[in-house]
Amino acid sequence: MSTASGDGVDASGDGASSAAAAPAGRRIPPASSMPWVRNLRRFVGSGTNLGSEALMELETKRILLEIFKERQRKSAEAGSIPSFYKKKPEEGSISSRVQRLAKYRFLKKQSELLLNADDLDAMWVCLRENCVIDDATGAEKMNYEDFCHIATVCTEQIGQKCKRFFSPSNFMKFEKDDSGRIAILPFYLYVMRTVSLTQARIDMSELDEDSDGFLQPHEMEAYIRGLIPNLAQLRDMPTQFVQMYCRIAARKFFFFCDPHRRGKACIKKVLLSNCLQELMELHQESEEEVTDTEQAENWFSLTSAQRICDKDQNGTLSKQELKEYADGTLTEIFIERVFDEHVRRSKVGGGNSREMDFESFLDFVLALENKDTAEGLTYLFRCLDLNGRGFLTTADIHSLFRDVHQKWIEGGNYELCIEDVRDEIWDMVKPADPLRISLSDLLSCKQGGTIASMLIDVRGFWAHDNRENLLQEEEEQVEEA
Questions:
Q1: Dist CA 107 CA 204 (whole Å)
Q2: Which is nearest to 21 in space by CA: 10, 37, 13, 29?
Q3: Where do the segments described as Disordered lie (predicted)?
Q4: What is the per-residue pLDDT across 161-174, written as a single tens digit (0 to 9) for each?
Q5: For residue 253, with 0-12 CB atoms within 10 Å meaning exposed, 13-18 middle and 19 or more buried, which class applies?
Q6: Were both Cys, which of 184, 207, 430, 450 would link to 127 (CB 3.0–4.6 Å)?
């Protein structure tokens, strides 16, 4: 009969040491109590005679354990409040360099997956060569079989990077005729726009220094400065005007994409905004003559940027200088309210020395030129809300229109009753509360821009009063054209 030795190995030498071979009622000692186990653990734990990799592994485990204990200690001190702020890595640190390198490689990979100009030209040729002509309209169209065939041809000629545009879901996005065909032009424009927006996002992400998905003013200006050589209508811009142009152009993005005025614009909002589309319209060279008025309608055109000038050489505007804007048709009470709500008070000097800086002036112009938008109307409503209560009363309307009425009479127009205008405004808005008009009421009535013009600008009230004649003149001009 064999007996078990102290090290737990069968004395017979066959290596069998199992609970089944042990006599009934005999228990095998735990591994931690065996001498060879204790000696091995002591040897490994000491780190003596270990290779460099093993030592590195032990050191890594020690560091990670210390980090884990430190986090546990901080969590215990913080209590039940979760952490909502993560400190950004310091500039020049290893974490910062690794983050920057990872972003660079990622953006480079995404850029390589984009179609270039030659690829887009090849796709357009392929679409035209494999489509069918609609007998009724003459439009070039393709059904789903043609769509799949073109996908195969484009993949062979261009590569796999064009394959994602030829998915069944993309085909279903477009309007189909009775035969289930889609026009090739809208599909091609969709591909071009997708490529353009993706490239814009890559370019903006490269300028995003802290990689938080937002652009600060100087980063937005740098993006616009990089676009100028590629925009046909801006190539002849004087060099000395480039910096001022970038400030003017960037301000519109922040007016519409930074509603809380935090000083940074979300890249996603910028890409989806109408501002970027308006800027990209300057890519195409216009063969027809464009009047100054038509060019001024685009905020990003050179004509529009040059008309926005500061009459004060010190870079700011006083109340008196602002009153001269729009040929002096704006009311004094509105100018006062603009300074109260949208101009910062100077730390030096009294309240009368307060002046409007260039960025505030750009916001002012943008609000007046975009009164029908939610952003423009929000800006103006703060000025109309004389008591800062979040709504307008009949007394507010009377006070606001009193200055318009005075300019109206000084202009030689007929006498009118302020109460009648007030009642007309109430009928136009139809507020949820019959005693007060809120910002949401002005936005929902779809006439908020017109009402704001009537209350701040005598020219705006004149346009409303003569709307029928103006509409008739527009119709006559369209018929003559």
A1: 10
A2: 10
A3: 1-28
A4: 998 999 999 999 99
A5: buried
A6: 184
Q: How far apart are CA 287 and CA 155, in angstroms?
A: 36
Q: Which two tokens stand for residue 71?
A: 């986090």
Judge contact between 23 and 1, C-beta under 8 A. no
Supply the mean pLDDT for the chain.
83
pLDDT tens-digit map of 202-234: 999 999 988 888 999 999 999 999 999 988 888
- 158 contacts 122 by C-beta, under 8 angstroms: yes
Nearest to 198 by CA among 116, 102, 104: 116
Distance between first and last Cα of the chain: 118
Q: Which two tokens stand for residue 327?
A: 């040929």
294: Cβ–Cβ under 8 A, 6 or more apart, which residues?
none
Place of tokens 């353009």: 196
Cα-based distances in Å from 354 to 324, 325, 342:
17, 18, 11
Residues 461 and 451: their CA atoms lie apart, in Å, by 8
Q: What are phi and psi of 346, to 5 degrees?
A: -75, 145
Name 33's Cβ contacts closer than 8 Å, sequence gap at least 6.
Answer: none
Q: What is the pTM of this model?
A: 0.74
For residue 175, the one-letter residue type is: E
Question: Rounded to whole angstroms, how far apart are CA atoms 134 and 219?
Answer: 48
Q: What gap in Å lies between CA 190 and CA 423, rounded to an integer?
A: 48
Inform me whether the pLDDT recorded for 250 exceeds 60: yes
417 Ramachandran zone, left/alpha/beta (phi>0; psi -120 to 50): beta
Structure tokens at 215: 């652009």
Taking alpha carbons only, the member of 189, 192, 190, 198 closest to residue 110 is 198
- State the pLDDT confidence band at 26, using cuts at 50, 70 and 90: low
pLDDT at position 30 over 70: no
CA distance 185 to 131: 11
Rounded Cα distance between 12 and 109, Å, is 66
Q: Count of CB atoms within 10 A of residue 228's CB?
A: 16
Tokens 């652009």 locate to 215
Interacting residues of 102 by C-beta distance below 8 A, sequence separation 6+? none
Amino acid at site 466: N
Distance from C-alpha of 221 to C-alpha of 215, rounded to nearest angstrom: 9
Distance CA 256, CA 22 (A): 82
> Quick check: helix, strand or coil at residue 279?
helix
Encoded tokens for 368: 């007046």
Rounded to an integer, the average pLDDT of 415-435 is 90
Bridge partners of residue 141, in order along the sequence: 132, 183
